[in-house]
Amino acid sequence: MTLPETMRAIEISKPGGPEVLTPVEVPVPAPGPGQILIEVHWAGVNRPDALQRAGAYAPPPSASPLPGLEASGRVAALGPDVSGWTVGDEACALLPGGGYAEYVVTPAAHALPIPKGMNLREAACLPETCYTVWSNVFIRGGLKAGEVFLVHGGSSGIGTTAIQIAAALGARVFTTAGSAEKCATCKDLGAERAINYREEDFVEIVKAEGGADVILDMVGGDYIARNLRALAEDGRLVQIAFLQGPKAEINFAPMMMKRQTITGSTLRPQSDLAKARIAAELRAHVWPLIEGGRLAPVMDSEFPLDQAAEAHRRIESSGHIGKIVLKVR
Ligand SMILES: NC(=O)c1ccc[n+]([C@@H]2O[C@H](COP(=O)([O-])OP(=O)(O)OC[C@H]3O[C@@H](n4cnc5c(N)ncnc54)[C@H](OP(=O)(O)O)[C@@H]3O)[C@@H](O)[C@H]2O)c1
After folding, report:
1. CA 187 to chain centre
2. Which residue of 81, 135, 215, 223 is surrounded by the most CB atoms within 10 Å?
């Protein structure tokens, strides 16, 4: 494959609103040891991209400063010591950054094959949510078949993925979302009960089922105390964001009496090895669900790369259901 010297990309010109996302021409990156270069066809848009743009989620020191945590496309070049990939292969990949561009480098072990039957547009939406859901709900939270699982933000990219994987693996799925339309989508995806949090109290509904064994939360704020009330004995609360803020006044005595666990994680700062291990688990446990028709990204909308600012306005409106993608070529 002949590679150009420069490429179109979107940079964050300074911390701020969507308008700081600026089209630029920059050098095509070169893959280092263990890395592949991907010719990007589609890039997924995620809420952490908006946090990075606003200056609240800095990329790790070794990562590209360009936004974009996931993409799909073709392998365009291999760095030294790469096995398992050939130039021309189609792939989707978790990225340390840099997905809003025509080319991106990432560790080869963080790329996954396109599931059979899926197109590149949908596949671009798999890595960030699948890595996050698998590592937090199943590795960290230890969710098992038959257990009660509550995921907040059920209509988000993360929520729509969590509902489908948990339901496919036999959990009883409860979720919250902010409108009747969003709740209907969540039920279609496999939620036993979708709770419109503007009208109903998730604590009472989940407690009536014996409490949640695992809760995946991105809301925080007053949800922290409410989640602990909704959690069953030996339950696990897994925190992946704090859209309503990270601080709360908590009485920890019930947590001790009910032997509950409070944990959480962010994906991006984890080591390459930790991410490679998650990728291997996704290939073994989640890719067969996708190829068996049990899981597919819920597609909200697409925007051309140059209109990344519009994509950010859409995700920050919270009007979307599922995933937003950028068409790169
Ligand atoms: N820890 C990690 O490694 C990691 C990785 C990826 C994403 N995340 C986090 O996971 C969350 C979901 O990510 P995503 O990309 O799937 O986001 P998304 O699609 O933008 O979803 C966020 C959803 O949360 C709901 N929500 C509930 N309370 C909210 C509030 N106070 N403010 C704004 N939205 C609220 C909104 O729907 P309603 O109408 O139902 O309110 C909104 O659609 C984000 O917070 C993101 O930062 C964490």
Report:
1. 20
2. 215
Q: How far apart are CA 170 and CA 173, in angstroms?
A: 9
Q: Is the CB of 96 under 6 A from ligand 1?
A: no
CA of 125 to the centre of ligand 1 (A): 15
Full DSSP string of 199-215? TS-HHHHHHTTT-EEEE
pLDDT grade for 2, boundaries at 50, 70 and 90: confident
For residue 218, the SS3 value is: coil
Rounded-to-integer distance, Cα 21 and Cα 14, Å: 8
> Does the C-beta of 270 come closer than 6 Å to ligand 1?
no
Q: Does residue 177's CB lie within 6 angstroms of at least one atom of ligand 1?
A: yes
pLDDT of residue 1: 74
- Give the tens place of pLDDT for each residue, 88-108: 999 999 999 999 999 999 999
The residue behind tokens 């002949």 is: 2
Q: Is the CB of 307 under 6 A from ligand 1?
A: no
- Collect all residues with Cβ–Cβ distance below 8 Å to 237 and sequence separation of at least 6: 214, 215, 217, 227, 228, 231, 260, 261, 262, 263
